[in-house]
Amino acid sequence: MTVINRAAQAGDPAGKPADVGALIDELLLDVKGFSVDYVTEGDPVHAVDDVDLQIRRGEVVGLAGESGSGKSTLAYAVTRLLRDPGVITAGEAHFYDYPAGSYRTGSGGGGPKVIDLLTDDRRVLQVVRWSRIAVVFQSALQALNPVYKVGKLIDDVLAAHDPRSSKKSRRVRAAELLGMVGISSDRLDSYPHQLSGGMRQRVMIALALALRPHLLIMDEPTTALDVVIQREILEELMQLKEQLGFSVLFITHDLSLLIEIADTIAVMYAGRLVEKAPAQALFRAPRHPYTYGLTRSFPSLRGEKKVMTGIPGSPPDLRNVPSGCPFHPRCAWAMPECSTTEPPRIQLQEPAGTREALCWLQDGRHQVPVELGLPSPVASGRQLIVPPDAVIAIPESLQEVAEPTIEELDA
Amino acid sequence: MTAAPHEAFGRAADPDRGEPVLEAIGITKHYRVGVGTFKRGTVHAAEDISLALYPGAVTAVVGESGSGKSTLTRMLARTQHLTSGELLFEGREVGAQKAPDQDYRRAVQLVLQDPFASLNPTHTVRYILSRPLQIHGLAGDNVEQTVLALLRRVALEPAEQFIDKFPHELSGGQRQRVSIARSLAVQPRVLIADEPVSMLDVSIRLGVLNLLADLRDHERIAILYVTHDIASARYLADTIMVMYAGRVVEVAPAASMTSHPAHPYTKLLLSAAPDPETEEKTWVGESGAPPSLVDPPSGCRFHPRCPFAMDICRTEAPPSFPVDVDHTAECWLLDPARTDAAAASRAAAAEAEPVVAVGPSDDALPGGLL
User: Fold this and answer.
1) Which chain A residue has the Cα nearest residue B259?
2) What distance in Å separates residue A226's CA from the closest CA in chain B?
3) Which of A235, A304, A382, B311 has its CA 20 to 30 A from that of B191?
4) For the segment A337-366, what is each residue's pLDDT rounded down to a tens digit?
C-alpha cells in the first residue's frame, strides 16, 4: 500500500496525523485482504475484492454502497453467515474478544483474545455469533419467525446460549429487553404480524442485543421504514450504543444518513472498498471520484437550490466489471491507466486523520483535481443530539454480567 | 371555468400559470374492509383533497406510508372510483364516478414505483413502447422511428441498441426511463409519478428527477411527483403538498415549505429527514405513530401526536388557514380568531423550550407558526 503523508504538506507542525482518539488501539474487528466469490456456472463473480476494514471498540462504522456493491456480502462473509454459492477466496478476519465485564471501553481487565473468524471450529463460531457479533437484518417481517410470539423468539436465543437459566428468569430478561427498545412487556405475547414495521425492527434490535454483543451489524435496518420512525429508532440505537458500549457496522445505501450517525465511513463500489475516512471528512472533502459523485447525489433541505447531476451511467454488472478501475467509465477524471490497471490503495495521512482511497489520482504522481483535494475538516463523528431528558433504562442484566467464554462453553 | 374551484383550493387563479390541466375538488376515497371476523369497517384513505396541476409545473405530494398519497394517484388516474368529489380536466367535469374514457386515459399517465414489476418481462422495449401507440391509434407509418425518438427523449442512447432489449437486460434507472417513455408515447398532458426514484440506486436518482424536470420545462407537462423524501420534493417541485393520515395538512411553494413549515407535522417530518447540511439537529423524540385510518382520531388527525394540541383540536377538524402567499395549512394554531389560544400555547411552549423546537426552522415554535 502506498502511504502519502499530506500532514506535513498541509503545514502541520508535528507532521503526524491527529489521533482518532484513545480507542485507536482497541481494535474489535480486523478484516484484511478479504475476497468473496459467487461461484456459478461459468466464471465466478467477484462480489468482494481485496477489502480491508477495521472496527474499533465503541466505533460506528458506516458501510455505504449501491445495490450489488458487495456491502452485505462482506458483512455476511465476515460473520460466516454466507450461503452457497458464496465462497471466501482470500483474506483473513480476526475478532478481538475482550475479557468479560470489560466490554465497555476503558474498563481495563487484561488483553483481548484473538479469534480467527475463518475457523472451521463450529463451537467457536457458535460463541461468536450473537454473543459477540449480532446481526440486525433488513426485513424484520421475514427475519422474525411468524409462528412464534415475540416472547418465544427472545426466549429461544437466551435458552440456546445459556441452557442453565430458568424459564422464568428468561421471561423477565425478555421483558427487560423489550422495555429497553421502548416496547411494553405485554407485547411479549404478540406475533410479529401484529406489530407495526417500526416495532418489528425494534424487536430485531432487542433480539440482537439479548446476549450483549460487542459488535452489532445492521444491514439496512431502517430502509423499509418511514423517515420519522427511522429517526426514532436511530436515536434510540445511538443512546443504547453510548450506554452499552458496543460497536456498530451500519450498512446502507443512504450516505446522508451515515454522515449523521457514523464515526468512519467506508464506501464500496463493484466489490472494492474505494474510500474510507472519518464521516465529515468523507462528506466535506471526498478523495475518490465516486464518493464525490455520491455526496452530490442527494439534494439538501437547506441552502440554494442548484441543479445536481448525480453520477452518469449505471453501476456495473458484476459479471462484466470494466477493466482497470471499475469506476472509470463513469468517472469525469478518468486517465488512460484507469482503464488498464487497477488503482492501488493509497493511504493518505492528513491532519484530520488517516484515510484511504483506491484511485490513481491520489498516488502522489498526479495532479489532484481541486474537487478531490479539499482540506478535510478535523471535527468528525456524530451530530445527533440526544434530547436532554431522554434516558433509556438499561436493565441490570445487560450491564456488567460475566459472559461465558469459549473455554466454559467447551466444557 | 368558474372561479369556484380555485376558491375551494384556497387560492386565486394565478394568471402566470395559465389554467390548470387537471383539478381535483374535495376528492375522497373510502375502502370497505373486513375488521376482525365479522365486522366491516371503512378505511378513510383520502379525505377531501383539492389540488390543481398546471402545465409546466411539478406538484410534489409528500407523506409517510399510509398517508393516502398512492390512493391520491389512483384517484387522479381514475384507476379507482372516487367515493365523492369531482375532477376537472381542462376545466370540464369528467364525471369521476364513471370509468375514464380513452381521451382521459391518454391525457393522464401514471409512472409506477417499481420498474422491475411495471414492465412485462416477456416483451422487448420495442413492443412495450409501441403498444400504447397502437392502442391509442398513434402508430402512424413508422412505429420504429417513433419508438426510437421516445428512447432518445428519455436519454436512452444509442436508441438503436436499446430498442430490442428485454427489461432484464436493463438497469433499474434504464427501466424507469423506459417506463417514463411508455407514458410519453401517448403525448400526455399530465404525468403522475408515484415514487419514481425510490427503488433506484442513489447515484442515478437525480438523472431521473432531472428528466422529469426537463419534461416540465420543455414539454410543459403537468407533473404530480409523489414521494416520501421531502428533500427531493424541494429539489424538483414548484409546490409541495404534505399529507398526513389521508388529509392534505399543508400546501406551500417548495422553498417556503422547507424553510418556513407551518404545520407541526411538517416540522416533525423535516426534523426527521437526514440532511448533512443541517448543522443544528433538533428532534422532538418519540411522538407515536400515524393513526389507524379505520377509526381516525376525532378533530385534527394529528392531535394525538401534536405537542401543541388544544381542546378544539380534539373535537373539530381544522379548516385550511392562509399562512403566506400560496401557503396554507390545516392547523388551529393558525386561526386568526384564536390568537388567544395561540398565545397561551406559545407561553406553554416557551416553558418547555428544548422539547418543542420541532423543525429546522429558525423561529421558535409556535411563534414560527404565525
Assistant:
1) A302
2) 6
3) A304
4) 999 999 999 999 888 788 999 999 998 888
